[in-house]
Design goal:
Layout: H1 14-20, E1 27-29, H2 42-49, E2 56-61, E3 67-71, E4 87-91, H3 94-97, H4 102-106, E5 116-124, E6 139-145, E7 148-153, E8 178-182, E9 187-190, E10 195-200, E11 204-211, H5 216-228, H6 253-266, H7 274-282, E12 308-311, E13 317-321, E14 326-330, E15 333-336, H8 339-347, E16 350-352, H9 353-356, H10 362-373, E17 377-378
Antiparallel strand pairs: 1-9, 2-3, 2-4, 4-5, 5-11, 6-9, 6-11, 7-8, 7-10, 12-16, 12-17, 13-14, 14-15
């Protein structure tokens, strides 16, 4: 029996994909999901877009002004007024609202899960598009229904080549270098910085698996915030060896050296909290997990009567380890946890509780209870709301 895990890459191995295509060049995979049929209908997608807190957009292409964006929740009364062509409905984080669709995202775990962001689903009638644009993140787009023509351009885009006074970053001019038409089951991979233009040729649904690409500014801002909270407010900038200087407004070399020493100590790569901070940062997301009568507070593990737990698809699990500690981070909070236990929690969505708790410490059991009570772990799948 072939033990090779299935991936939607066709005959291309994950190793070859990462080496040849990942963040390098586009790729079209014919029938990456053979005989694929969308598990959600356009009407169901439209209904979801009307719900509170759903991250939904409705993009309508007009002649003047050229584009208009409606943000969710979308008014149900708006749909009958739409033109027959040239509009697109998009919803992010669909796997968090509909956990039964998480299996689609899981097919792309040959890319580390901590990099996966969400499943976005779009519907468009003929001519529907969001215009030629580029993204700063990687994306796989699975054709789920109908047909879409994709055009790409790999050349740099000047800041001036964008339509003014609209909520979308759409390019004024776009010249296709390559073009494909995708049918249900086909996939296109688009690396960051590659301009692309997808246009529906008929009633069309696309499933986009997007990946995280935090800006350097966001990383540094969070890093400084995290570590500055650890500093003693009594520690202040001092110059005990200050000497007289000819120009009273000029900063002396000693002041720069003192500031540089502070920054170097603060940002040292061997800072024992650095790994914990980065693990915590990469686990952050915007999902909100509502309380549910189905999931009551659990005071201790023996109260649980099921053998299976589920990772909440709205929660982001990330872990790291060093010589002393394994850190499990969930939605921006870090927990020190035994390595084997952490690996089991993160390996699959469904977790065998009896194997998980057969030999764990009281400290680890307490963390499990925290994860259950916070609904990062579930005793059964349930609908999840998203901010």
């Amino acid at each position: 029996m072939d033990s090779t895990p299935h991936t939607p890459l066709g005959n291309l191995s994950p190793a070859n994909f990462l080496q040849q295509y990942w963040q390098k060049k586009p790729l079209v995979i014919r029938q990456g999901f053979p005989n694929f049929t969308s598990p959600i209908s356009p009407d169901e997608l439209a209904g979801l877009s009307c719900e509170d807190d759903v991250n939904a957009r409705l993009v309508v292409e007009h002649s003047n002004p050229p584009w208009h964006v409606h943000y969710g929740p979308i008014e149900e009364s708006l749909f009958p007024t739409l033109p027959e062509t040239h509009w697109t409905l998009l919803i992010n984080d669909v796997e968090k609202w509909l956990p039964e669709l998480s299996w689609i995202v899981d097919q792309f775990r040959f890319i580390p899960e901590w990099l996966i962001d969400d499943l976005m689903i779009s519907y468009a009638p003929e001519g529907g598009s969001v215009g030629p644009h580029l993204d700063r993140y990687d994306v796989f787009i699975l054709q789920a229904q109908g047909h879409r023509r994709w055009q790409i351009n790999t050349q740099p885009v000047s800041p001036e080549n964008h339509i003014d006074n609209i909520d979308l970053c759409i390019q004024k001019s776009f010249t296709a270098e390559q073009e494909w038409v995708l049918a249900p089951g086909d996939i296109i991979y688009i690396p960051p910085g590659t301009s692309h233009h997808g246009v529906a040729l008929d009633d069309c649904m696309s499933f986009s698996i997007g990946f995280r690409a935090p800006a350097h500014s966001a990383l540094l801002h969070d890093f400084l915030n995290h570590f500055s909270r650890q500093l003693n407010p009594e520690d202040v900038f001092r110059l005990p060896n200050l000497t007289s200087q000819p120009h009273p407004c000029e900063l002396p070399v000693e002041a720069f050296e003192q500031a540089q020493d502070l920054i170097n100590t603060f940002c040292a790569t061997d800072n024992p909290e650095f790994k914990q901070w980065f693990t915590q940062f990469m686990s952050e997301n915007n999902s909100h997990i509502p309380c549910d009568d189905e999931h009551n507070t659990i005071m201790q593990l023996p109260d649980i009567t099921t053998d299976t737990l589920h990772r909440n698809p709205a929660s982001r699990f990330v872990f790291s380890r060093d010589d002393k500690t394994t850190w499990l981070a969930v939605d921006g909070t870090c927990y020190p946890l035994e390595t084997h236990l952490t690996e089991q929690l993160c390996f699959a969505r469904d977790i065998n509780l009896s194997k998980l708790t057969s030999q764990i410490s009281e400290e680890d059991a307490a963390i499990l209870i925290l994860l259950l009570n916070a609904q990062h772990l579930l005793l059964g799948n349930c609908p999840v709301a998203v901010e």
